[in-house]
Design goal:
Blueprint lengths: L1 H19 L5 E5 L16 E5 L6
Antiparallel strand pairs: 1-2
């Protein structure tokens, strides 16, 4: 359990660093997995890239 908790802090800190440096955070997802439900028109070679940038109003 401690490793899962540490992992979430590491992911969050990496995300915060990327955003703080005015970069765009992306997530590469394997779209071929059974539990992944994404629009097929955006899948390229079995993968999809998601933009995780915070929305600016």
């Amino acid at each position: 359990m401690a490793m899962a908790l540490l992992r979430s802090y590491l992911i969050r800190s990496a995300y915060d660093w990327v955003v703080a440096h005015q970069l765009t955070p992306y997530l590469l997802v394997d779209a071929t997995l059974d539990d992944v439900d994404v629009p097929e028109e955006y899948v390229d070679k079995g993968k999809i890239i998601l933009n995780l940038a915070p929305a600016v109003a």
